[in-house]
Amino acid sequence: MPSKGEEQMKTCEENIRATYDRQGYLTSLSVLSEAELQEAQEAFRQLEKTHGEAYTQYSLHNIHLQHKWAMDLAKHPKLLRVMMALLGPDVILLDSRFICKYPTVQQEQRRSETHPESGLPYVAWHQDMRYWAVAGGPVISVWLALDDTTKENGALQVIPGSHKSGMFPHHQALRHGNMLTVNQEIPSELLPSQQALLCPLSAGQMSVHDGFLVHASDPNMSQRRRCGFVVRYVSTSAFPIDDPDRPRKFHSTVLISGTDHFNHFSSKRT
After folding, report:
1. Does residue 113 surpass a pLDDT of 80?
2. What is the DSSP-derived secondary structure letter of residue 189?
């Protein structure tokens, strides 16, 4: 007979799945303790000193393979518990990236010096699956906040339930400053923008969203940095596909839970 604690855990997991299936996202989930947060923030400060902020804004890609502290964040038990509730016991870490929006004054100075024609960094309305050549299961994105994220510094915005509408058309963004590497966006006339919700986070919390959820974030108009660790996860049943419109390669996959009976990602580490 299951214990009371096991029954409570099962109920919690069922609630997580039901909410996620309905909305396409979860938000304000506490992950890091104060001590863990301070350690991660200090480790990131060292990367900023080493590489400079122009680099750490978007170019820290898959450093979970280089730095144990980044891997520890991606495998944090509280984070992993949610991934297992959504994906099942067998989970692969697909990809990771730090994304930082620095304060407006710093951005303006850097912009005027390097790309005077560009705008402040923002993320256009899009769906992650437009860029992820994966089938056989969902791709789940996690934003683990190292800083408080608010409306002023460009917190995540989502359109609840949009993950149920399939793939939206995307075209080249008309506005300068889009942080998406292929500079695409969903046309504004297709967006139910009146349904958009803001997902502010306290540092140490995370949000989770489905690869088909329509989402975006505005420029950082504050004097505070907005930094987060973005990690993607899939079930071991998922597999990469050949798609010339989404030429994504997966060289940094890691099995972080359970057993992989499929071996669809040949570069996978354990």
Report:
1. no
2. G
